[in-house]
Q: What sequence folds into this?
């Protein structure tokens, strides 16, 4: 079975980018330390100063790893924090990715 890939797209409010980056560091550290089935979990900046975007590239070993991530206390904390702080201009969008061409390094 091949790994599972997702792309999360976040649209933070321009004045909340630094806060979202703090949250990203906290979540990333948790995932690295507690979710061995996550093969890749990287956050990227893109967009413009007026319309910032943050993209998260996620790769999981299998569906069990996805389920562990989705049910983690840290992901619940991220969602709860967003509900309290309203850091985003738009809802977070998570897209499943299906590779069909190209290559990647083999681990």
A:
């Amino acid at each position: 079975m091949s790994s599972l890939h997702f792309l999360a797209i976040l649209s933070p409010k321009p004045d909340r980018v630094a806060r979202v980056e703090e949250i990203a560091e906290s979540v990333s550290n948790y995932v690295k330390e507690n979710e061995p089935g996550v093969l890749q979990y990287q956050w990227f900046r893109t967009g413009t100063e007026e319309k910032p975007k943050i993209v998260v590239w996620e790769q999981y070993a299998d569906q069990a790893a996805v389920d562990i991530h989705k049910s983690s206390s840290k992901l619940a904390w991220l969602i709860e924090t967003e509900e309290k702080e309203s850091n985003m201009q738009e809802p977070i969008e998570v897209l499943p990715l299906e590779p069909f061409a190209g290559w990647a390094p083999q681990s």
